[in-house]
Description:
4-stranded antiparallel sheet, about 20% helix, globular, alpha/beta, 9-stranded mixed sheet
Amino acid sequence: MPEVERHHAIATFRDGSELATPWWRVRSGADGPDLLVLAAQHGNEVQGAEVIRRFMGECAEGLLCGTAWLVPFANLPAIRHRRNSILLGPEEKGTDRHRAHNINGQWPGDPEGNDVQRLAHALHEEIVRHASHVIDLHCWNKFWATATLATDDGGESRRMGEVAGTRFTWWRPAAAVDPPAQVRDVVMARGGAGMAVEFAGQYVMVEREVQTGLRTVTNVAKMLGMLPGEPELPPDTGIAVTDDTTVVVEAQCSGLFVQAPDLQLEDRVEAEQSLGHIIRDDGLATEEIVAPVGGWLWRFGSHRPDPDVSLADQHPYSQPGDPMASIVTG
Ligand SMILES: [Zn+2]
């Protein structure tokens, strides 16, 4: 039987206090890959934590080879702060003035750095440096569909991306990185493999997203021979998102966008199908919004640039140019 261990990675902060990050290790007892799955590097991106909890159960029952390194709460201070990163206040983005406190970009960390860099260092030394493969679970805003962020390295990272089984896959070429970097870049830079998943919706736990994520992580483990069976790839998954295949539907008038009630992210839409309507604020006319092309709903719902942190940017009041949907024609 696989062996489940619970550990704590201890980070020592500048003021001398310690942070204990709990994590699981499941050992099969046989040689094989060291698969790291981590979630919630950003404190408002929590869906991956439940994915990892369920995946731990699968590993505990059936891990055939290798070791699973499972970190559901990669950034506990940010989770407790209930925002993307520590120090952020209302409507403040992690890419703003506190960039050095955004842990996603601080790997492999620094034992003499700020508290976030110290946390990354502690996790790196105890966990990340052992990983041969990494899956980094994030969430983006609720208007954007779940996607695998895959790297085409022509090898293991590509194979991981190919079995992810999400509707959408966003490929990017392998890039040389200079640390500090994102966690998967650090693993890849020393010859490992990696990918990330972005689930739809921050601050929330959505069952459909969790199920998708569990299938993705399990598929990778199956591909690596760590779990029994073949990866499960539903029809119409792995659709590549590219600029060339993405058509953005923008508001042409101002008013309130009402989404078609029977549509949600990832759905198939046909050309001329209704995506909803705008109730115009200049005369109360109803403007039907139709899909200009057939394809898959990649983004859906009126929003402005910062829906991650701003409720106002989630408001359905639209003005000309606001994106209401994106359709990938693949
Ligand atoms: Zn994130």
